Amino acid sequence: MSAEFVAAEMPAAQSETDHVASCSSSRDSHGEFDFDGFGGGTTDRQMVFIELCAGSAVLSATAQRHGYRVLPVDCKRNRHKPRCRIVSLDLSEAHAWEVLEYIVDTCDVAAVHLAPPCGTCSKARGIPMPDGSPGPQPLRTAEHLLGVPDMTPLDRIKVNAANMLYERMGKFIEWLDSKGVAWVLENPTNSFLWELGYFSYAVQHGYFAHCHACAYGSSRPKKTSFLSNRSGIHMMQKFCGDVEPHEHAPWGISADGGFATALEAQYPDAMCEQLVKFVDELCSDKGIKISPASLQQPRAHRQPRGRATPQLIPEYELVVSLLLHNTPALDSKRCLMQPCRNVPVGSKLLRSEKKGKMVLCIFGVFHTCEKFVHVAKSLWHPFDLAAHIPDHLLRCLFEHLTKSPMDLVKLRIQRLKLWTSWARDLAKDESEYKLTLDPRVRAVLGAKRLLLMKKVAEEIGWPDTELFSELATGFRLVGNATRSNVFQQGLKAATLSEEQLMRDAKFLKPALLGKIRASGGGEHSSALYDITVAEAKEKSWLKGPYSPVEMDQRYSGRWLPVRRFPVVQKDKLRPIDDLRENRVNDTFSSTERATLYALDHLVWASIFLMRFYRSGGHVSFTLSDGTVLDGCVHPEWLAMPPDLRITAMDLKSAYKQLPLSPLDFDKSIVSLWSVKDRDVKCFECHVLPFGASASVHNFLRVSAFLQAAGCHLGIIWMSYFDDFPMLSHSLHTGSTLACARGMMSLFGFVYSEEKLLPFERSAEILGVVFDLGLSSEGRVSISNKPSRVEELNDALLGILNEKFVIPTSMPSVLGKLQYADSHVWGRAGKLALADLRELGHTSPSKVLLEESQLKAFETLRCRLCSGRPKTFLADDVEKPVLIFTDGALEYEGDAAKATIGGVSLKPDGACEVFGCAVPDDVLKRWQDGGKTHVIGLVELYACVVSLLHWKPDVSSRRVILFVDNWPALDVLVKGTSLQPEWTRWKTTSCFGSHACLQLRMLQITLAEGLSRSLSF
Ligand SMILES: [Zn+2]
Fold first, then answer.
1. Residues 6+ apart with CB under 8 A from 469
2. Distance from the CA of 261 to the center of ligand 1, in angstroms?
């Protein structure tokens, strides 16, 4: 990959040369680009939950845990310490509401929760204080709902601001209603808000539910109301008397001098859980399970994060609704104690609601033990199902397996010929079309055949239909990203509108120019200036130089400089433009997140080809729309060894091949110090600038299309930014290369001819050594590049000697370690890294390392330097080993007793069972510090013991592990835990020895029925 990319746009975690990435400009705080993947061809249906005036965002944090993608919005002045990342939008600005509408329009929004501040609406004002003194003055009364006539100027400002916010929210609610989107408005029951005209629409069209916060575990009986356009909100209704008797804390002034009402601003956890459950049911009414079945696919040696992955076996065999006179008797887990009509004993009451005099009860019926095991035995490991591979790549692989080598070559020629004939037919239209384009855009496009690409896109059914018209006008840097329908859902909300940005340019411009002048260039300034001038003179990427005064004339004073600074990489000087500093990136919204799975797909594709080229037989792929490709491996492949080769093509100066919209020339004026002129010089930029969030998004759209088009021509390749690593059987490497070259030239893209190496058995690809030398034996291995190993070893040794780190320099080291780690270490490395990540990366001063942290660094170093490559085996497709685990924590009096057990079931029917107690001293250690409820750790212990115990049997097999505890599962999958003791415990005691297991675990909640029947 080109170092240029890495420098500016890639997150630290994946960059090749990410020492650059530690500079402020290079990391996007929104982190919209995932570390590991590419999701070409499919979009997921993850549901979005929006919380307005989120405060500390406890509700969003809860929703996030349940698998929602969340957007907690609050303003910058928010005084609460947030529980998850708050999106800072100023709701007093029209722009904020435009962004919200864009998100609601382009995402699957499950619900919008609005919790406007209630301070000015409180009826508690005016109540005398406990000492008899008058309380704060009421700001509204029933007669003066919009504010009493007599109040201080400061209060007047507050009330007016609140009124304006309410007005916007009221309108937004109406708009949400028109879009059929669920909304919930929350405020104290005792608030004037409910009487305001702004919310009259909401009140007329909504359903109310009231509750006491103490019924949800809060310490005071604060009355809270919810208003929603969905009647299910009734489930929030719960009062003090409905729960176990409890004590209340006093009202009035609290210990720290504030009003106790302020302490009650945060929702208690149980209330959040209930609200999320309400949202869950809205989704389930629409037939969406909050573990959407579409994406988040399992990948080689990695686990999808979060709980948004479907369970392989649904928790309930069926769900039954019954209309009953009374709610039947339930045990503590809300399960039936007696059969109820046809619903068997033990079924779980999922929810109930009053229907006149009757109660509608909805039960989940668990699988019987036998049935669950029967279903489990029929499962294939998702890795073997190809469910995670985009359609265009699957079609391509299918052709590679089912056609003869000769037919494959013929097919390629035939398709490329067809496209060439289209290019000829379109030539006249193409040049006429180009003439209608802005000449500055046309100059950047060069020989690109837009109409041809568009026709090809239609031919292959490419979903990003807007791509080519945007290429023709140049890509925007600001505003709302076009939804490509290619990438996964993701959220990045612009905190600034284009208008605001350009208004602020008045202040930003002199500040940035001043900063450049003050720095007066620095070490590499003349070299940097020379490169920049060359970009203008020789390559026409830039236009200039101009003085700032000349720029003022060109743009009537309204323009924004982008500070350009040099970064030295491998003795080469790279210019980097800082579009974060000048806030352009703050004006870009997107509801997609590109994830690049190139390396995973490369591994997967090579193993699949090897497996079938060796064994032959029946091939069946299911595409995302359900189409099944069925066929047999062509016998000619079996007659020769599966000799695979690899190389990579990369686009030359990739961003510079794509035009920037002239509308945004004024926002990316490249500015730097000229030593010769002793002043700042400015250049107009006509190509996609490095460092812009929009550039990344749009470039990846282009490269995803190029990859798909290539697959259609029969090239097995992936895309990773400007890199296109490709596989070929040794029989037709010539044809593969010719085809890739032909396509790029036909479309008018320029690739690096000098970097295009011949196909080899082993190559440095995407920063690792990808070795197909043993492909005839069905092996692929990946190892870190020797240069990378050396570099990291030095860095780690340095840290170990000095025994301290400077957190601001950590992200670059962490990023490199993480990338290296993912190829060699497996989960143990992840856990050690998590420890280090806790150090944060914001402090510029030295942090001394504790013994455990030093140990983690040493562990990483040892693993890294052992140099053992990660090997993947193209074994015969075999059903996975099933492992069921369970843990129990019971009390005899005060004495806790923890037991664990496991069952292993092999495809041949062999079954093993174990059960034992958790040693008392281990249990005591977990309970240190007063923690009694350690069931999660017990469950985790069961998994770990099972894996250790059956390691000899399963280490080279696919395994599906069944766990019935979410927190334990999170630790297993993510390798991190919010509870430090979990992570630490695991790092030290067990996972170290587990790295080589390479288990592929998948999440399933073990049905309660089965769980109970495993009595150890
Ligand atoms: Zn109470």
1. none
2. 15
- The amino acid that residue 213 corresponds to is A
Residue 307 has pLDDT above 50, yes or no: no
How far is CA 287 from its chain centroid?
23
Q: How many helices (H) and strands (E) does the chain have?
A: 29, 33
pLDDT at residue 745 in the model: 95
What's the 249 CA to ligand 1 centre distance in angstroms?
9
Q: In angstroms, rounded to a whole number, what is the distance separating the alpha carbons of residues 69 and 51?
A: 11
In the structure, ligand 1 is a single-atom ion and the residues with CB under 5 Å from it are 214, 221, 240
Cα 233 to averaged position of ligand 1 atoms, centre (Å): 21
**CA–CA separation, 741 vs 715, rounded Å?**
11
Q: pLDDT per residue over 267-302, tens digit each?
A: 998 999 999 999 989 988 877 766 433 233 333 333
Distance 243 CA to ligand 1 centre (A): 8
Q: How far is the CA of 278 from the centre of ligand 1 (A)?
A: 22
Instruction: Compute the Cα dihedral for 1000, 1005, 1011, 1016 and give only its sign.
Output: positive
Angle of helix 733-747 relative to helix 693-712, nearest 10 degrees, comes to 130
CA of residue 208 to ligand 1 center, whole Å: 20
What is the token pair recorded at 711?
Answer: 């697959």
CA of 221 to the centre of ligand 1 (A): 5
pLDDT of residue 832: 60
pTM for this entry: 0.72
Tokens describing residue 821: 């780690």
For residue range 142-198, what is the model confidence (pLDDT) as tens digits?
A: 889 999 888 899 999 999 999 999 999 999 999 999 999 999 999 999 899 999 999
Q: How far does the centroid of ligand 1 lie from the alpha carbon of residue 754, in Å? A: 75
Instruction: Look at residue 23 in the predicted model and tell me its pLDDT.
Output: 28
- So what's the pLDDT on residue 779? 84
